[in-house]
Amino acid sequence: MNHKDLRQSPPASLFKQLLAMLYDSLLIISILFLATAILLPFNQGEAVGGLFYNLYLLIVIYIFYSWFWRKSGQTLGMKVWKILIIDDYGYNPSWPISFLRLISATFPPAVFLAVNNYFGLIQTNRSIAMVSGLVFLLGYLLRLLRPYTLHDRISQTHVVDVSAVKPQPQVDAEEE
What we know:
Layout: H1 3-7, H2 14-39, H3 51-72, H4 76-80, E1 83-87, H5 95-119, H6 125-145, H7 150-155, E2 157-161
Helix pairs in contact: 2-3, 3-5, 5-6
């Protein structure tokens, strides 16, 4: 597929995007277990926690998404559902664009969690998780009204459906 074909591809449906996120979340959970297991020997086998640990896990998640997006434009979940992330020019997102996309997708719930932690607005863990999830979904609510999410707009990326795109036949230089 060339970049012009990708730029003209239809936007991926919200349903496909959410299913790809579900697939990826299962993979990320296992990767985070492994990343935690790597730290255990350095902590005498005790539970790991704190700011360093949270930043470490965020970096692991950033590397996961950015590496897949930079390499092929698709995570494994996106590949299953035949959706692809591209920048405005039809190319795979760069490392900084991937970072911007991840930050803009996760910033609203992070702000909510920080404000709640400081002011103690909601006391139960279940309620905190539900409200944080709703805040996260706010970025996707825009997707119901327009073809792209809030973090797509901020990072100038698009999630497109490539299931209908037919690859162009490659022409050898010798045949011309």
